[in-house]
Amino acid sequence: MSPTLPVYRRVVHDELTRLSDAPLSDRALPEPLPLDAPPPDGWYERVDGRGLFVRRTTPPLGAAAPSDQAWYVHGLAGSTTNWTQLADLLADRAVGYSVDLPGHGRSDPPPHGRYRLSDDADLVAAVIRRRSDRPVHLVGNSLGGMVAVGIAARHPDLVRSLTLISPAVPDLRMTTDRGADRRLALLLLPGTTGVAVRRLSAVDPAERARGMAAVCFGDPSVITEDQFRAAAEDLAWRTGLPWVHRSLLGSLRALMTSYLSRGSSSFRAAAARISIPTLVVWGTRDQLVDPRLAERTAAAFPDASLLLLPGLGHTAMMEDPTTTARAVLALWDGVEHAGTHGRRPPGRSDLPGAPEQAPGTVVATS
Fold first, then answer.
1. What pLDDT score was predicted for residue 274?
2. Which residues cross the membrane (predicted)?
3. What average pLDDT does the chain have?
């Protein structure tokens, strides 16, 4: 999404918090890193002749390396930097790996410009298989949530638990009470790419950063001017890549096309095959993926719990990384307690009325 697409009135569904049944860990956590904190270093993994950029988050110097691994998958127009805060909070429990999806961040675009969610899932799975010698905890946001579902369904031996933050689940309603735009459907028509690329190219990075904050965050005012400048600098660097806008549009088309899948290739069929413990997290003020889809999304998985966070938008891991981390830790603790395929023990879900929001780098949409 970009500021060139209209944003409709902000809709609040804080009443949905009553649906939450996910426990929160009581474990003490440090203060989250600031939103503009530098991300960890990364490297390229060569898979089928192209580079997939990966970052690794480890515990503080001198701390023992945990045996678990967590892999983080960002959303549309996002990158590995979307996970800096959450991965850091969880680093003493799991070594964190975040990946730039094809055509995003620093990763190469797919050959011939062919974007498919199943291809993204298989590519990330290949890197996980190369780097991990045991099942991993998988965490995805929005588009990355759908890729994570594909990994868990297509490569079940790789995944120990699944966390989905505002996953971009199928929703063909072009309603105007959220951040949807009827013109998005036109992107499925041939010949529309050039026009869309020209419009995206004309948007100033600083304007785009603010526009993305407006649609991604429940309360964009928590982002400081310094953090906006850091986000704009990152966007300016990425805008210089020749494929960046076509990759955004290609991934968006792939996501929308996946909504039309039926039968065994549909989202519901994939979710039904995923037997591992699953956590679904949603902000009640998400403008990009309707929070009213949260309950039915969690119900699509055989073993899922749901956390709806009041006041948050589309990127809970950036807006409130502490509460998100506590929910993820409770999931992981339950997996450890019950075994890879066991249900989590009961726990508390003591959600605050309005969580304290921490600002985050604004580089994700869906």
1. 98
2. none
3. 86
Residue-range domain boundaries for the chain:
14-338
Q: Is 71 helix (H, G, I), strand (E, B) or coil?
A: strand
CA torsion, points 87, 102, 270, 130, in degrees to nearest 10? Answer: -70
Phi first, then psi: give them for residue 280, nearest 5 degrees.
Answer: -110, 125
Q: DSSP of 201-260, one letter per residue?
A: HTS-HHHHHHHHHHHH-S-GGGS-HHHHHHHHHHHHHHHTSTTHHHHHHHHHHHHHHHTT
Mean pLDDT of 292-312: 97
Quickly count: other Cβ atoms within 10 Å of residue 58's Cβ: 15
Average of per-residue pLDDT across 173-179? 53
DSSP character at residue 193? H
First to last CA, the chain: 8
- Mean pLDDT for the stretch of residues 261-275: 95
Contact call for residues 82 and 317 (beta carbons, < 8 A): yes
Distance, CA of 216 to CA of 218 (rounded, Å): 7
Asked if 330 and 23 touch (Cβ cutoff 8 Å), the reply is yes
The pLDDT value given to residue 194: 67
In total, the chain counts a number of residues equal to 366
Query: Which pair of structure tokens corresponds to residue 309?
Result: 């966070």
What's phi and psi for 208, nearest 5 deg?
A: -65, -40
- 103: pLDDT strictly greater than 70: yes
Helix (H) or strand (E) holding 318: helix 316-319
pTM of the model: 0.88
Tell the residue number behind the tokens 């013109």, with chain if given.
183
pLDDT band at 11; cut points 50, 70, 90: confident
User: Taking the domain 14-338, which CATH number applies?
Assistant: 3.40.50.1820
- Order of all β-strands in the sheet with 94-99: 42-47, 50-57, 94-99, 68-73, 136-141, 159-165, 278-283, 304-309
Q: Which helix (H) or strand (E) holds 163?
A: strand 159-165
Token pair 């939103």: residue? 35
Place of tokens 């890729």: 147
**Segment 342-360 mean pLDDT:** 37
Q: Would strands 159-165 and 278-283 be described as parallel, antiparallel, or unpaired?
A: parallel
